[in-house]
Write a structure and sequence with these properties.
The protein is built from 11 helices and 10 strands. Helices cover 40% and strands 17% of the residues. The radius of gyration is 20 Å and the shape is globular. It is α+β, with helices and mostly antiparallel strands. It folds into 2 domains: 92 residues, Arc Repressor Mutant, subunit A; 179 residues, Beta-Lactamase (2-Layer Sandwich).
């Protein structure tokens, strides 16, 4: 099974295994509200363990990834199997399409993807490179629109996929739309991983880069996320001027160098402004459902 380099959060997925004696824990879990349901937290933690690189996992692998005991992980998995969110062959467990229901209500009420898609399609047709749109969720970007270009890219990006914000052009644009103190807080929540030799992992350097993006109004990332991948991104603002999403153009250095892709910034920014104009006249109740 392939391994994937991931951003390690400083917070544990599960504060304490379900079958662990609380008196034996070296560190007490943080205080939770009285009505906090830890079982729900752990069930969702199991669902989030699966990804494109780990589509099928054993009970032991899931227990190790979530911090649960093997017995507790098995009970949660069997419950998810009974509910139809997980399938198993007796050894390996994998998600079923039913998990899409969990995010469909949000995506179906999000006006941004449907508003942005026609503009992004025209942009891709104009410049001949692929484009994505994303929103910020904590220290990660979530892809909500994707229009592939004519060339096959090595990076696999699907709707709902997540990437570390610090290593993507989309993420840096979205972070640049936040106050400096909020940016610092988000960067403290992750341990930046040197995905490639070019990846910026020093937090001070990242904050400086984000300030630069804020000043110039766009971001460029050259082979920091994946070998050969270069991307530019521009912000999309709502009626109040708040950055709510970002658009990008991405390609391989074999097609365009970073300098050549940078020449497409005006076209990208024009598409972003067009999306902003469309959002301004979109039905207000639907637009209010968009949250960062």
């Amino acid at each position: 099974m392939r391994e994937r380099r991931v951003v390690r959060s400083r917070a544990s997925v599960a504060d304490m295994p379900a079958d662990t004696d609380p008196t034996s824990a070296a560190v007490e879990p943080p205080a939770r509200p009285r009505d906090f349901v830890q079982s729900l937290e752990r069930g969702l933690a199991i669902i989030r363990v699966f990804n494109a690189e780990r589509p099928a996992l054993t009970v032991t692998e899931i227990a190790e990834a979530t911090g649960l005991t093997r017995a507790a992980a098995r009970r949660f998995l069997l419950t998810l199997v009974e509910l139809g969110y997980v399938a198993t062959d007796g050894r390996y467990y994998e998600l079923t399409p039913r998990v899409l229901e969990l995010g469909y209500a949000f995506l179906s009420g999000l006006s941004f993807p449907e508003v942005a898609l026609p503009r992004i399609e025209r942009l891709v047709a104009e410049v001949g490179e692929g484009s994505e749109a994303a929103i910020l969720d904590g220290h990660e970007v979530v892809y909500v629109v994707r229009v592939p270009g004519p060339a096959l890219m090595t990076i696999a990006v699907n709707i709902g996929a997540r990437m570390p914000a610090y290593a993507t052009a989309l993420g840096r644009v979205l972070l640049a739309g936040l106050p400096d103190d909020r940016v610092a807080d988000l960067l403290e929540q992750v341990e930046p991983v040197p995905l490639l030799p070019r990846t910026i992992v020093d937090r001070s350097a990242l904050r400086a880069e984000i300030r630069k993006v804020r000043e110039q109004g766009w971001a460029l990332v050259d082979q920091e996320l994946e070998e050969g991948l270069v991307a530019i991104a521009a912000p999309v603002r709502d009626r109040t001027g708040r950055v709510v999403a970002a658009l990008n153009l991405s390609t391989h250095v074999g097609r365009k160098t970073a300098d050549e892709l940078q020449e497409l910034v005006p076209a990208l920014q024009r598409a972003a402004r067009e999306v902003e104009g469309d959002l301004a006249v979109a039905p207000a109740p639907r637009q209010r459902k968009m949250r960062i």
